Amino acid sequence: MNAQVINCRAAVLWSPGTPLTIENITVDPPQEGEVRVRMVSAGLCASDGHLVWGWDTDLILDLEGNPIVMGHEGAGVVESVGPGVTSVAPGDHVIPMWMPECEKCDLCSHPKTNLCLSGDIVSAMYHKNKETRMKINGKPLLSKAGTGTFSEYSVIRETHVAKINPSADLKTVCIIGCAVGGGYGSAVNIARVHPGAKCAVWGLGAVGLSALLGCKQSGAHTIIGIDINADKESVAKEFGCNEFIIPKTLDEPIESYLQKMGGIDYAFDCIGNQQVLDSAYKSLTPWGVLTVLGLGPRGNGVNAKVADLVMGRTVTGGLFGNQKPRKTNQEMVDKYLSGSLPIDGLITHRIRLDEINEGFDNLKAGKTVRTVIEF
Ligand SMILES: [Zn+2]
Ligand SMILES: [Zn+2]
Predict the structure, then answer these.
(1) GO MF terms on file (predicted)?
(2) Catalytic residue at 72?
């Protein structure tokens, strides 16, 4: 066990709605049940952006005035482990998991959910007894989702790491930990797209493109990608979309257009704004399934009519594709290595840690698919 405090750099958010600052921080040794990870890469996800941009979503965190190391998508190497850690050892390659999986609680053994009773997204910002392992000038630094991947080193609970095949490129597989796992899983595990189906995906960032890939690999016949940015068309086609639509270029509401095609069997909302939720719901066939992935402004919802529900429509959703996170990360890395999960095209930008604010600006402007920090 390595008992040294590590000094390193991290991107810190001092308060929601302000730019991140690159700070010199300290990272304490891991304690019981904890793992210290040297981060190799980290992806920029919109749910970090919501906090950086100060958006009020249903999952906004109350930081209680504390600064926080952001980032919940990453990949790295275990540097040291605390007492009692058995699933990983120094040198192992890992993907941090923003959802815990203790493998001991009633929910971890429940086949219908991937939630875990060992912690939630708020308690994950701290370690035991509200301590933090990361500090700045001795002041506690919270850790986003318990993973804090925008740091050269992070202390993460063993329940929040998945050991992966060491031959996978750590600079690429980081995106499996949120975007790919969540988007692809929503198609194959939540919606369970059937062969020959008609699918439509709103919002073609890394999550939406991963959902397209899941639809394609499930054997969907018609896969429609919907975005406001014309630049997304080529990458959408690469990921399986056979029709690309920019709604404002139609001379009718998109739901009317899609209903004239006979309706959509599986709609995916990867945006969360109210107009998209309404359009996606109204585009469904009577037996259609709307899967909600996007985190929009607080209070948004789906206006599901009883008359539609009794006819057979379904509205659903889930975190990380409602898949057990450890096994899913491991299996998706293996699929990537075998060539059956072609995700390289999702990474459109690679940056240094100190370019992170520009990365979030470009994400907000819809100019990027996934931007990955290389440490
Ligand atoms: Zn994410
Ligand atoms: Zn559990």
Answers:
(1) S-(hydroxymethyl)glutathione dehydrogenase [NAD(P)+] activity; zinc ion binding
(2) yes
The string of DSSP letters for 128-159 reads GGG--SEEETTEEEEEGGGT--SBSEEEEEGG
Asked whether the beta carbons of 207 and 293 are under 8 A apart, the reply is yes
The answer to whether the CB of 63 falls within 8 A of the CB of 15 is yes
How far is C-alpha 286 from the chain's CA centre?
30
H or E segment and range at residue 44: none
47 is catalytic: yes
| Choice among 8, 15, 41, 50 that is catalytic | 50
CATH 3.90.180.10 residue ranges of the chain are: 6-172+343-374
Of the two residues 129 and 301, the one the predictor is more confident about is 301
178 C-alpha to ligand 1 centroid (Å): 5
Scan for tokens 């998109």, then name that residue: 254
Which is nearest to 145 in space by CA: 251, 63, 207, 206?
Answer: 63
Helices 46-53 and 356-364, axial angle in degrees (round to 10): 100
Cα 206 to averaged position of ligand 1 atoms, centre (Å):
10
Ligand nearest to the CA of 145: 1
* Residue 254 CB contacts under 8 Å (≥ 6 apart), including other chains: 226, 245, 247, 279, 283
- Please state the separation of Cα 342 from the chain's center in Å: 17
CATH class of the structural domain 180-320: alpha beta
pLDDT tens digits along 312-340: 999 999 999 999 999 999 999 999 999 99
Catalytic residue check, 45: yes
- CA of 20 relative to ligand 2 center, distance in Å: 32
Distance CA 324, CA 109 (A): 10
What is the CA(69)–ligand 1 centre distance, in A? 15
The domain covering 6-172+343-374 belongs, at the CATH homologous superfamily level, to Medium-chain alcohol dehydrogenases, catalytic domain (3.90.180.10)
Instruction: Give the pairing type, strands 153-157 and 34-43.
Output: antiparallel
Annotated catalytic residue: which of 41, 72, 93, 108?
72
Give tens-digit pLDDT for 337-364.
Answer: 999 999 999 999 999 999 999 999 999 9
Catalytic option among 8, 41, 45, 174 = 45
Question: In this predicted structure, what is the pLDDT of residue 168?
Answer: 98
Contact 245, 224 (CB under 8 A): yes
**Could you tell me where in the chain the CATH 3.40.50.720 domains are found?**
180-320
